[in-house]
Amino acid sequence: MIDLFYPFQWVANNITNRLNLEGHIADSVNFIIYDVIKIFFLLIVMIFAISYIRSYITPEKTRTVIGNKKGLRYHFLASITGVFTPFCSCSSVPLFIGFIEAGVPLGVTFSFLITSPLVNEAAIAILWATFGLKLTIIYVISGILIGVISGYIIGLLKMEKYVASFVYDIKMMKIKEEKKTQKDRIKYAKKEVRNIVSKVWLYIIIGVTLGGLFHSFAPEGILEKYAGNSIIGVPIATLIGIPLYSNAIAMIPIIESLVGKGLPLGTALAFLMAVTALSLPEIIILKKVLKKELIAVFVGITGFAIMITGYLFNFIV
Amino acid sequence: MKIEILGTGCNNCLKLEENAKKALKDINKKDVELIKITDITEILRYGIMSTPAIIIDGEIKAYGRIPDIDEIKTWVK
User: Fold this and answer.
1) pLDDT tens column, A182-199
2) Cβ of B62 and A171 within 8 Å?
3) I need a surface site. Which of A2, A72, A146, A277 has the fewest CB within 10 A?
4) Is A1 a residue whose pLDDT tops 60?
């Protein structure tokens, strides 16, 4: 198969040659330049593509489409829609209330809420650039399934009474979809690219640089001794990842270099998923609408599903 | 004229407010009441889940995005 990214490697090789570097340093510099170009290329392409699709799939539309329907296929629908909606922790409460108000069952709402931060355009782009397309596809599918299954279980537990009671009193007006032309959608997608890239570029360069240095200078297999345990590693990685905020996607290049030195892939994946799916700021914000029992169930089930995914990767894939 | 800016106070909402103020200043429009709505339950009552949003004389002009100054000008003229 032709390497889509070959031109980037060519550019990186040329720059490294001109700098007259040798040995490990040349290695690191080459790796860093190549990764930076590749990540930014994929970031721009992915954010543009997903934002463009997003201009068709708004949460306002989603909640009316799903409405008060139950069943596994609506968990899938909610989870897949979650991939395309923007998610910052500041929008989780309005989205939650909006879904409940439209009659969307609690479990289906959670399928949406869990997948939404877990599978996002920035994580997809950086995963693709560092771990490759195959693993990225597996990540996306696992992310969607984690949302479906966790949401389904939360639905079975019938925890409606653990939602803050004011949520059920809110009455929302029905609003019309904004009319958007193709030009509007493209403009919106471009704006999103600028928005997200301007927020994460520095962290990505730092992440790639650290990853690149580790990649070239750390001895082979150094992590096997400490983090190589495929059994204990997964829950530890998940527990460390939960409180961290999802902007930590810039850590993906570092994680990739750790995998290169012997960190099991499933352990790495569990960590990344815990970081993106659950975060302390999000939990604090959700406390406004969820009682602590439901928050505990949400974090517990999602965390458990992430650990299972980690084990699947460590032992089967 | 009444302009309502809906948003919980995140960066995007502040940017929208700034754009609206600039648009009004550019076309030198005075008699305008600019109201900020930051309470989330209040915002939801308008049917809005994606912030920021801008409502002019009761009509939702945009939500879930930041309209630029020129676009706002066409609404307030």
Assistant:
1) 999 999 999 989 988 988
2) no
3) A2
4) no
Structural element, H or E, at residue A285: helix A280-286
User: What's the CA gap between A109 and A120, in Å, rounded?
Assistant: 17
> Comparing C-alpha atoms, which of A57, A83, A204, A77 is closest to residue A140?
A83
Q: Are B51 and B20 in contact (CB under 8 A)?
A: no
| Position with higher pLDDT, A30 vs A218 | A30
Which positions ≥6 away from A196 have C-beta within 8 Å?
A43, A47, A121, A122
For chain B, list the domains and their CATH numbers. Answer: 2-58 (3.40.30)
A62 backbone dihedrals φ, ψ, rounded to 5° = -55, -45
pLDDT in tens, A3-59: 788 899 999 998 988 888 888 888 888 889 999 999 999 999 999 999 999 989 888
Domain range for A96: 6-315
Return the structure tokens found at A29.
């510099």
A1 assigned to some structural domain = no
Beta-carbon separation of A94 and B66 below 8 A: no
